[in-house]
């Protein structure tokens, strides 16, 4: 299913292997760079996979031999898999390129999506992504992650938001290289099932806010 709002096309790609999604990102990136395609966001789920950004340290990785896909985005290691909605915006950024401003727009979009479900989330100074603040349930917990790359003025990679995924997958790694904080999901925080199918249309509604 494909929808276009405010010049931004959202493509529901279903469940897609990570390498297949990476190939499709690069194809779309070439098309946006050349002007053959407009701004596009892939929305999908991956089969279970660990991906490591350029800043991943050896001690962040699984110690049990679990395979890891090394990628050219920023950030460190993370997990993708069932119950997590992943978005890959392939967007042309205006000159002068302001990557930080783009990341902040993506963060705000995800904060707004969380608010739609009744979850108050926000930013943590010095850390990317979207966080549930420290409370009586524990320290600050990341509910959505961001890792991007910009090449030839067009974005790659993107964001993930934990809907109703199995959070034990994060136990094998130091997620995003952060040892003193947890990972959570919309379902875990709100004590009710919130599947990807519920979150997907809400994200689509808010996607236009990530464009400049």
From TrEMBL:
It catalyses: octanoyl-[ACP] + L-lysyl-[protein] = N(6)-octanoyl-L-lysyl-[protein] + holo-[ACP] + H(+). The active site is at 176 (acyl-thioester intermediate). Pfam families: LplA-B_cat (PF21948). Pathway: Protein modification; protein lipoylation via endogenous pathway; protein N(6)-(lipoyl)lysine from octanoyl-[acyl-carrier-protein]: step 1/2. This is Octanoyltransferase. Belongs to the LipB family. Its EC number is 2.3.1.181. Catalyzes the transfer of endogenously produced octanoic acid from octanoyl-acyl-carrier-protein onto the lipoyl domains of lipoate-dependent enzymes. Lipoyl-ACP can also act as a substrate although octanoyl-ACP is likely to be the physiological substrate. In the reaction, the free carboxyl group of octanoic acid is attached via an amide linkage to the epsilon-amino group of a specific lysine residue of lipoyl domains of lipoate-dependent enzymes.
